[in-house]
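Reopening this one. Same input as before:
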Amino acid sequence: MSRRLLLCLWLCAPSCLWAAVLNVEFQFTPYRGDPAADSVDTVAGRARVYLNGVPLLEQAIAAQSVPVMFEAREIAPALWLPASAFGPGLRRGENSLRIEFEPADAAAYSAQLRWAEVTDAVQEERSDGHYAATNQSGEGQETRQGHGPLSFERRFVADFASDRPFHHYPPVDALSAADRAAILEQVQARAAAFRPTFDGVHQLLAGRENLRLADIKRLKCLDKAYAVGLRIVLPPVESIELLTFGRPEVVVRGRDGAPLFMPNDAARFERIKGQAVQLCAGVALAAAYPPQLVFVRTPAGRWEVAY
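Same output, byte for byte:
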């Protein structure tokens, strides 16, 4: 190939050829209706999302009217999933996302999964007085029809993800009685950390993105939540699941996907005076006590929370 041809290709190739991918976004919607219309109705049900075979989240989807937008007839998402928000379980390189949807009824419906890469370059298009610009590429969609549960799976590359040490730990295929005891001991200690002086909770929250520990301490929202009788409780030990997937991660949650940590009485939040303090307590406790914990076994053989 001549140098002149190489230069021509360099100058004429679209800028997106060298654009870096910053994120991959997924949009999922189960619906009834005609996407050629201005709106469709979402289907009530429950969506379970798995990242690399490991449960990521579970969310109820309500029945409601949503718009169908643009020339591409894009259905507004019932579930919007940016890969940058998937957390530490996201691997640098190839990943898989699986969505399992279970409708609340047995009537026929359609479900659509859309995806697109978000890049650091803007692509512009001008033709016949029409102008469009986007920083998305690699767009695609898959639509299926059914009467009952439907499942979608999509592989994608996330070179923007952080490479974490536990990504390279050996897979865990089974847990011994000692493994289970060591993990449950940490889970119980985490729940018990919600008590004055809350140093244990502060340690759990230290360094969290989009969460200012200094404000939590200044507002004393954990103190005030405790003062109105709020406590963190666990399901009975026999109702706590420890799930392995042939990967380094071990998921700990309530049976059948129930939350691992719960307030003893959510109504007690209303007794906390001041909306700002209520919000502070809710955000802080949700961050410290998520619906599930993911443990990994270090090379030294110790179990620790990965996320």
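So the earlier flakiness isn't reproducible anymore. For the record, The longest helix spans residues 177-192.
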